Structures are given as C-alpha cells and as structure tokens.
Amino acid sequence: MIEHPPNTYTIVIKLGTSSLVDEVTREPRIANMSNIVETVVKLRRAGHRIVLVSSGAIAVGMKRVGWSEKPTKLAAVQALASIGQGRLIGLFDDLFRQLNQTIAQILITRNDIIDYTQYQNATNTLNELLEMGVIPIVNENDTLSVAEIKFGDNDTLSAITAGMIHANYLFLMTDVECLYTDNPRTNPEARPILLVDSIDDLAVKTDSEDAGAGSKVGTGGMTTKLIAAELATNAGVTTIITLSAQPQCILDIVANIQRSDTTLPAADQALHIEQEIAAGKIPLHTRFLGLPRDTQIRSDRRFWLLHGLKTKGVIYIDLGCFEALTRKNRAGLLPAGIIAVEGLFHESECVSVRVLPTKNSALHEAAEVGHCRVNYSSVEINLIKGHKSSEIASILGFADSEYVAHRDNLAFPPSLPPLTDDLTALKYIP
C-alpha cells in the first residue's frame, strides 16, 4: 500500500442529487456546487486525497428536456442519464477549472467489476488518479445500468469506492445534519446521535418515513446510509453523516479529526465530539467508527466478494459446515456440507451462503453469513449436494474441482459472532 504524508487522509465524499439539483425547479444548485468545489480544492491543497461520488445525472437530464416527472420506462430514464451526465460533469469541470484543479470522470456498474481483474483495474485507476493529484468524480453509469447490475444507490457505491481504495473517511452528505433516534421532522423528541461504535447496537427508527428520508429528486434515505456505513466501517472506513447544504463543514470536521486522539475509547471520543459541538468548533454530525484493524476487512478479494458482486442465488449449509469454513485453517466448501440450493446461477457466479440450525430445518430459519463464488452451476450443485467429492465425477460425468467453492472464493464479514446454535445472533448486511 502507498505511504502518504502523516495527518493527511484519503476521503470519499458522496453528494446526493438534492445537493446538486433544486428539488422543485430541477435547476443545478450552482452556489452549493461552488461551495463543494471550493471545499474539495482546499482539502486537496492541504494534502488530502479526495474522491467525489456524485448523483444528479437523471435530474439534470430532466431539466434539459423540460420534463417535470421522472419517467418509469427504463429506456427513457437511461436516455435522461446520458443527457445529464455530460451536462453535470461539464458544470463540475467549469467550476474546478477556475481553481486550476483537474478532475476525471469514472462511470461504473457492478458489471464492470464482476471479474476480479477488472475490480483491481478500477482500483488501480482510482489510486493512480489520486497520486496524480486529480479528483475522480464517480457515478453509477445509469445510461447502461439495469436492475441486475445496479449498485442500488450512490450511498452503496460510495461505500464500495471507499473500501476499494482503503479510504480513511467517507462523508455522506444529506439533507439533515446527522442521524437521529427518530425522524426529527415529525418527532420533536428525536435526539441526535453523535458517535456510533457498533451499528449492530444502534437503536434508531428507520422506516419509509425514516430518520431523514430522501428527497423527491434522490433515491437514498437514512436507511441506505446506515447500510453504506456498515459496509464502509467493516473495511475500516470511518463514515460521517453531515449536512449537504454546508459542504464547508467537512473542513471543520477534518481539522477536528487531525487534532483529536482517534485511539481513545469510543465513549471518550463521543464526549470530545459533544464538547466540540457545544463550543461551536465543529458542526452537528454523526461519526461511525471504522472497525479496528485486527477485525476489519483488509483483503481486497474478500471485500470484492462481499460487496462488489451481486448474488445470484443461495446455498444452504449446516452448522458443522459453517464451523469448518470459518476456522483458522479452513477448507473450501465441499458438496457434503450443502443442504439445499435456491435460484438459478452459473459457474463462477456469486451466491449467498446461509446456515441452517439442522439438516431438517425449514429454509426460512437460515441466517445469511457470507458470499461465495461457485465452481458449479445451481443445477449441478443440486445433483451433488450431500455427496462426497469423490462422487462428483460419477454423478456429473466430470469433476472440475473437489470444492463447490474454493476457500479463496469464500468471504465472511468481520462482524459475525462466534458459532452458536442460536442463529438469531448471526447478522450480516451485504
């Protein structure tokens, strides 16, 4: 990994559609975009490496063609994205050029990183741009994306981007200052949450009218930001939610981090943040601490399997098989440990791995624990499940591997608790 000057960070900043486009008029919010650009350039000149993840292409396209409502027809949405992408990157380029800052555009879908070599190429490109002093602007390629290859929202894309480049911090800019215990717009008793050490223990209400719902021109509410925060923190990326209308607050938060002791216990850090906010030194925000180095996902391949690939089906295994797959000197996934298969998928595709309490348990009792990339199709696995590897050739007529999934193609998140007969303790959010 490349060594960087001390007290400088790799920072990913996710900008929502409402940060860039007026919710009513669909006009670009030039003043806010200018503030964003000035903030990013100041961070860059201070030695930080910055990646922007930007939404807004479809909304900008709607304005260009005079449409007031987002169409439901996929081809029309993709056409609007193709119109808006050029306009949006052009606006950014005009603004950054005033400050002599070079930018680069990267459009991506899950299909672009379905192969690990392509994933590494995307990572290398981002890192090379950062070393050149360029600011990459990443967006999902909505012109080509369909449901099967979409990341879902740019909160998820920003978290995956942060994990790919081993960022130190991910800023999720939103239309509320921070995470609250409930929706502050409807519940005056809602309290701000300043620091989160464990998302699993977080007690907040997030429903369709969640604690900071998405705007009419965007796709992400607070629920998607919590999912993105869990994804990023698993990779060791501290994630911060703060107000998009005041992008300059990023400067204050970064300066606060630089002068703070981030090795202190979470309770001490929370007290320090509360005192700094009360003193007016930093704005209200929520900080999700990245997992410690000894528990976070450090392997690029493991991160790719868990978060870069979309699952195509499910393999159900028993507790004994799960124990064998997660021990220190683990083996690969053998057909003997597989109880059931769900969905249709091909060789080399990614599937969900779920654990059943017993071989006779109903499938709905299973808990998802990770992902794997398989050596056989769903049809073939259905035929060999429960059998010894030595029987594969006689059943299928060939045997490409003794494993359904090699151990290098198995990935489990760091937040899984120790093995237990109570599967309700197992929790994994892909």
From TrEMBL:
SMART domains: PUA. Keywords: Amino-acid biosynthesis, ATP-binding, Cytoplasm, Kinase, Nucleotide-binding, Proline biosynthesis, Transferase. Pfam families: AA_kinase, PUA. Residues 313-405 form the PUA domain. InterPro entries: AceGlu_kinase-like_sf (IPR036393), Asp/Glu/Uridylate_kinase (IPR001048), G5K_ProB (IPR041739), Glu/AcGlu_kinase (IPR001057), Glu_5kinase (IPR011529), Glu_5kinase/COase_Synthase (IPR005715), Glutamate_5-kinase_CS (IPR019797), PUA (IPR002478). It is found in: Cytoplasm. One of its GO terms (biological process) is alpha-amino acid biosynthetic process. PROSITE patterns: GLUTAMATE_5_KINASE, PUA. The keyword Cytoplasm applies. Its main location: cytoplasm. One of its GO terms (cellular component) is cytosol. One of its GO terms (molecular function) is RNA binding. Belongs to the glutamate 5-kinase family. This is PUA domain-containing protein. It comes from Australozyma saopauloensis.
